[in-house]
Amino acid sequence: MGRPRNIILLVADSLRYDSVHPTAQVQPDAQGPAGASGLPFATAHATRFTQARSGGCWTLPATASLFTGLMPHEHGADSQSRGIRADVPTLAEAMREKGFRTHQITANVATTEIFGLDRGYDEVLRIWNEVPSQHRKVHEALVLIGKPRLRKKILSADFVSGKLSEDLEASKVWLQDTVGDVFNAARARLESNEKDGKQSFLFLNLMETHFPYHVGPTFETTAEGWIGKMREIVSLFHLVNQTWLTQDSQPIRDDMMRLLRQRQRIAWERLAPRVDAFIEEMHAQGNLVVFGSDHGDNFGEQGWVYHFSNVTDAGNRVPLYWVDPADDTARVVDTPVSARDVYHGLLSSIGDDRGSFSPVKEPERSFPIMQSCWYNNQGKTLEKYRYNQICLLEGGTRWMRRRNEWFSAPPATTGPEVAFTRLPPAFDPLEEGVIAPERRKYLRAVLRDFGDFSARVEA
After folding, report:
1. Structural class in CATH, domain 7-131+176-367
2. Taking the CB of the first residue and of the last residue of the chain, which one, N or C, has fewer CB atoms within 10 A?
């Protein structure tokens, strides 16, 4: 069995598992039958993972884990350390060594050189530089209101002279669809490389399911009446700015939380047909496509809002499809796996021994471990939210540790997420026989190293 013609790693940013696979309990207003994904071709030709977890809860740590096969404390990129370690090899570097031309076509500035995630790519195409802005003045006003960092630029010389920052340019993708532009750019690279007799590795990032969740081609509200629409916009402001971390209250009311969550589902319903058609097109050409999400999003689960600092299933359980032209039999894998092992699977598919196993063939070798570092919101995060967390899924239970205490909760598989329960101080899942024996020694080392990493970045 030869290696794939080309490889495409396709990520829909921030997409929750239950936005793709809704249930009556979780998404009562979702269209179609419970569990419908909107991906009929992919479902019929893919290995689909129902219990995949991201390594981190936001784009930097989660994508760095996809690119390295490592946990956040190992690759070093999270909310406080902010950058992937220079000595960690990346998936793109390995692909390039094996003769692939490597392209990143992204709608998220966090996957670029800012945090070192550009390493190994022959090209990083920032899609916001390739598309005209729709409703430019509205775009600038909304982004400046929503981003404190950008508001500080209003009086700067580059702003006054009309030279908007890269940050502001990149935020165009918040307010308009770019999926067609990303796919067209991908097609162009594949065609050009094919003419040169070169294989392609493409990483594609789509932002339609990311905040503020594209319910239309350009920014729209979904609430009824002007009062409802204003509440929706104010709730979006509080969501992205994490204001609840600094003011000890939740400014987004329950009805607005449900509305914001439904925005992502609507965004997925709009995006899904285009993703499925692209996967079918790539599959027909003999390309390997892996589709999923880098992480999920929170709309009140476990008390969390948005996608920083958490180890919830809302924030870490992700859709994952492996569409291989060499074996396109539809399969469902219910074994819990870590999305970071996409790294190993893709390298295995090209015969690179750095890919130690394929999660498609040996899902039991994967081990979902999730980590988060607390989010420092302009130096004002309340003390009660200043903690790092680590969570593992083993034996049908999620075991979470923070501030030297253990908590447990069942996985969110059929309905709303169940809150973590604090365990008695004497209870240690590593000592009580609930963790498989062959993993205990490994987990002790992981916990120790994560503690050391946390202490270093805190310092």
Report:
1. alpha beta
2. C
